[in-house]
Amino acid sequence: MTKIKISALIYIILAIAFISLSPYFFDSYGMGILNQIAIYITLAVSYNLINGVTGQFSLGPNGFIAIGAYAAALVLLSTDQKNDLFNLEDPSPIILALHTNSFILALLMAGISACILSLILSFAVFRVRGDYLAIVTLGFGIIIQKLAINFPSLTNGSMGLNGIPLFSNLYWTGGIAIISVILILNLVYSKFGRAMKAVRDDEDAASAMGINTFWIKTLAFTASAFLEGIGGGLLVCLLGSVSPEQFGFEFTFILLTIIVLGGLGSTTGAIIGTILIVGGREWLRFLDEIQIKIDILNIDIHSMPGLRMVVFSLILILVMLFARRGIFGDKELNSFFKNKQCSKKEYK
Question: What GO molecular-function term can you cite, just one (predicted)?
């Protein structure tokens, strides 16, 4: 085992140790934040694959997360629960037939559902590029949300679903986050990952070099959607409920902010960006409490609802002014997955 591999193994061991010891140092509130951070790491590194590594400006991850969330919720709810929950219309026979008590199968169902949908969509969305691709994928995310509202026999409409088993804990969310990071990094620094970067840098030149750009973009799109679907399944099993309002464009905006702050193309940056965004929003929550006073230059400033996001936004603006390529740019923490010189055989 090389020195580089040992270095990466140390990071994995440290992450596992942190997950194992966290229940002894954090209360339920702190554990809830850690679970959210772990889920958002899975979502951010997968979203970074299509946006940062492959350079395709997709604005539709909220749609895939919603698909995964509803798929996991519907297969985990029992038939009796569905009959009790569906008040607007009777549940579809297909929905009633779907059930499993296995959390792993539910997550796989969530990921596969999002992956299949992304594969179908790829034939349409990759007919365009750039800003047009962003508009198409943005429309897809909105369509998924509206379909969830207007098909109550499948999703219970705007009333959503609750009573979902709370399977998600830090062992699940953190473990899947670690696996997601390893999978993404191995993909990024494989020959397929180098092809993705070539598409990002110059799609026409990559095509002229013999790279099947449509297939490469589709690979990135489906791989990203698969992990986003799993992340959606983890999220609903952490919250215990799901509704269409959870998956508006704001969800995509948060993920986009995370990967831009961390550095487009950097998986390490996506992880750090998640910790800063998700953790930072909670750390600044005290600013929204009316009772607290902040003493600045002997002037008492009463905190107010919304002040947290104002301060947080100002911090983000300052960071981006002084780090325009993000915190990590397109670099990683170490060279475990160091990009090697690609030989001609790799592209044959």
Answer: branched-chain amino acid transmembrane transporter activity
